[in-house]
Amino acid sequence: MERLQKMLAHAGVASRRKSEQLILEGKVKVNGQVVKELGTKVSASDTVEVDGVKLEKEQKVYYLLYKPRGIISAVTDDKGRKTVADLFPHIPERLFPVGRLDYETSGLLIMTNDGDLSYTLTHPKFKIDKTYVARVKGIPVKEQLRPLERGIVLEDGKTAPARVKLLSADPKQSKAIIEITIHEGKNRQVRRMFDAIGFPVQKLKRERFAFLTLHGLNAGESRELTSHEVKLLRVMAETGKIGS
Ligand code: URA
């Protein structure tokens, strides 16, 4: 559900303020009825008309982006930094990221204008597996990784058990590469989990999101999801069977 003036603005009818004006002037109908209330909530299934002309529903689009480091996972930035939306200059639809990756984190990010799917994919109750590869300072032994597998208490609560695998270790430079799979999306979760066990993350990349991987893409590149992939994400989310 979305506020009527926001929907009009998103559909490209007019700016948010001008859209409010149109509503107050009685020029907007929802399901055949004139609506003058600014807070009115509408959903994609409602029919909206402006000056008697039906609003075209924006086609839903879905992209898989290999987000590079040094870009923010937002559509705008008040500090003027480059955003993930800037990587889609030729796409007319308003794409936004599904969840977020830190400025310094690279990896797989879904971009879409489908708010409903975005909601299910980011809601913790749908338990979507996300796999990260972290380079950490120091070389943890199995026992030191165990707290991540059990769940670890962070300031905003205990994390769910993670799957953790030591991929390689470099004793000379005292660093290790570790794969970790979680299904939550707390802010800076992976970095905070490794901080909590005393092995700070130096570099972080998300390699998988559910069954999707970065296969075939370089940093900064994207591809459209196939309709089958989108269907699969929807079905899995609906049946709670998202996983890798
Ligand atoms: N965990 C983090 O610490 N950073 C991310 O960007 C994603 C997960």
Polypeptide structure, described:
By secondary structure, this protein is an alpha+beta fold. The chain has three domains: 2-54, Structural Genomics Hypothetical 15.5 Kd Protein In mrcA-pckA Intergenic Region, Chain A, CATH 3.10.290.10; 62-124 and 214-239, Alpha-Beta Plaits (2-Layer Sandwich); 129-209, 2-Layer Sandwich (Alpha-Beta Plaits). Helix content is 22%, strand content 29%. It is built from six helices and 17 strands. It has helices at 4-10, 16-24, 115-122, 142-150, 189-196, 227-239, and strands spanning 2-3, 28-30, 33-34, 41-42, 48-50, 53-54, 62-67, 96-97, 106-112, 130-137, 153-154, 157-158, 163-170, 175-182, 201-209, 212-213, 222-224. The strands form four sheets. Strands 7, 8, 9, 10, 13, 14, 15, 16 and 17 form a nine-stranded mixed beta sheet that branches. A four-stranded antiparallel beta sheet has the order 3-2-5-6. Strands 1-4 form a two-stranded antiparallel ribbon. A hairpin with a 4-residue loop joins strand 13 and strand 14 (175-182). Helix 1 (4-10) crosses helix 2 (16-24). The longest helix has 13 residues, at 227-239. The radius of gyration is 21 Å and the shape is elongated. The protein starts with a strand and ends in a 5-residue tail after the last helix. The model has no long low-confidence stretch (mean pLDDT 92). Bound molecules: uracil. The site of uracil (URA) has 8 residues, from helix 5.
